[in-house]
Amino acid sequence: MHRGKGMKFVGDSRISANRKPNIPKDYSEYPGKTEAFWPNFLLKEWMVGAVFLVGYLCLTIAHPSPLERIADPTDTAYIPLPDWYFLFLYQLLKYTYASGPYNAIGALVIPGLAFGALLLAPFLDRGPERSPAKRPFAVGFMLLAIAGVFYLTWESAAHHDWEASKKQGAIVEGADIDKESDGYKLMDSSGCISCHGAELTGGAGAPSLIDTGLSPEEISKIAVKGQGNMPAGMFKGTDEELATLAEFVSGLSTK
Predict the structure, then answer these.
(1) What's the pLDDT tens digit per position in 208-218?
(2) What is the C-alpha separation between 106 and 135, in angstroms, rounded?
(3) What is the DSSP letter of 94?
(4) What are the CA-CA distances from residue 80 to residues 37, 44, 73, 238 (Å)?
(5) Gap between the Cα atoms of 209 and 193, Å rounded
(6) pLDDT tens digits for 81-98?
(7) Angle in degrees, CA 194, 200, 202, rounded to 5
(8) What is the Cα–Cα distance from 179 to 119, expressed in whole angstroms?
(9) Strand partners for 230
(10) Does residue 23 sit in helix, strand or coil?
(11) DSSP string covering 107-127, please?
(12) How many CB atoms lie within 10 A of CB 67?
């Protein structure tokens, strides 16, 4: 090739004499070939992703996530339950070979091998075939993974006590509290709100004071002598103030 052949001088630079537009090839004319990654394939992926994202946002707006009551680390009877996409891992930790002294196997080793296999999949199956029938190893591993996740998820959901979970995780409905009343001010000054919450619906170390069903006399007794996690002598006011506080708590109701 002679020096400068096919080139034009434009100032002090050289450009091609025959400029071609930057248009990706149409691979549909070549059977067995793939399409251009940019922009053909990537544009399709973005469009599909945008549709799913909009649908997911609509679901989050129409059905907001339910909230449970305040977490109580002292409640050893609480039955935890992770979100649905972690149920299969939660169920895996219930088996003897993946729990207790073997907890590291269920939490790290088995999930690490499974997700590591997904990362190695493109290197293990490098054939050009796209038909599932001609890719037995890739399809077999995929079906095995789906079956395992589905089975563990079903096992976890089928053996969970949903009624007990619903009761223990329910948010206690609040009452129409008059925060300017003498009873509420006495609770605030006595430190009751720090445990029972500003809405008196309970907290990590104290139960709800709404709909207790207790009489003023019973509440007065608890305030003086204590009950459960509440020690005696928490209330240090006068008998008149104790009666006011007891009447206030006894009258708290959601009805």
Answers:
(1) 788 788 888 88
(2) 30
(3) T
(4) 45, 40, 12, 43
(5) 10
(6) 888 889 998 998 888 888
(7) 75
(8) 58
(9) 227
(10) coil
(11) IIIHHHHHHHHHHHHHHH---
(12) 8
